[in-house]
Automatic annotation (TrEMBL):
This is DOC11 protein. Residues 192-239 form the DOCKER domain. PROSITE patterns: DOCKER. Signal peptide: none annotated. Gene3D superfamilies: 1.25.40.410. Belongs to the DOCK family.
């Protein structure tokens, strides 16, 4: 009934924010397995009905959704993991269709950023469960007949490979968590490897700053924030 109002300004309006926040609240707060099945079904319909809100204009909705779905991908309940993996795959596929089968770069980026944030927030527990979810997503891509002739399956494979790289770097960080200098070195190299992606570089610099503050190294933390400010300034200047 309110589709026109919800889609005004490509979905970036107070009404859409309220509706989306309600959907997201179901993922943020623990639900029963049965309730979650309906939540995921509702979100699938929501993405299909309002693709422009996720894939056009501002990035907020896509980013927030990726973060919460990825948290569900590490759930101890296998049905929730399966549902979350399917929803993440649907998000990528709809993004690909939205760009007339050219790319799903927006979702790709937001997933990597969300993984990096989850690691920084120490919310990405259950590594093997997460690996299982990545495998489910890859299997979806390989068995999706209408997508066979497109670049989509290889792009999905590339994304899961990148996520594994981030996870491996994180495993190394875990080993060195008692050695702050080594830990920061690893984070710095990870931030540098994303030099071409300002959003990701910012995520890792923020994470480095948090560690510096925790260790009482305030001048180093300030350097990280100056770097972030420079990144943002340079990006805005280019725009």
């Amino acid at each position: 009934a309110f589709q026109t109002q919800l889609l005004s300004n490509d979905g970036h309006n107070p009404l859409m924010k309220k509706v989306f926040d309600i959907h997201l609240a179901f993922l943020k707060n623990g639900q029963s397995e049965a309730a979650l099945k309906h939540v995921f079904a509702s979100l699938r319909a929501f993405i299909s009905k309002f693709p422009s809100a996720f894939f056009k204009g501002r990035v907020n909705m896509c980013a927030a959704l990726c973060y919460e779905i990825l948290k569900c991908c590490t759930s101890k309940v296998s049905s929730t993991r399966n549902e979350a993996s399917a929803l993440l795959y649907l998000l990528m596929r709809n993004n690909f269709e939205f760009t007339k089968r050219r790319t799903f770069l927006r979702t790709h980026l937001q997933i990597i950023i969300a993984v990096s944030q989850l690691i920084a927030d120490v919310a990405l527990s259950g590594g093997t469960r997460f690996q299982d979810s990545l495998l489910i997503i890859n299997n979806f891509a390989n068995s999706d007949r209408p997508m066979k002739a497109t670049a989509f399956p290889s792009e999905v494979k590339d994304l899961t490979k990148r996520i594994r790289t981030v996870l491996m770097a994180t495993a190394q960080m875990k080993e060195h968590e008692k050695d702050p200098e080594m830990l920061i070195d690893l984070q710095y190299s990870l931030a540098k490897s994303y030099a071409s992606t300002p959003e990701l570089r910012k995520t890792w610099l923020d994470s480095m700053a948090k560690i510096h503050v925790k260790n009482g190294d305030f001048s180093e933390a300030a350097m990280c924030y100056v770097h972030v400010a420079a990144l943002v300034a340079e990006f805005l200047h280019r725009k």
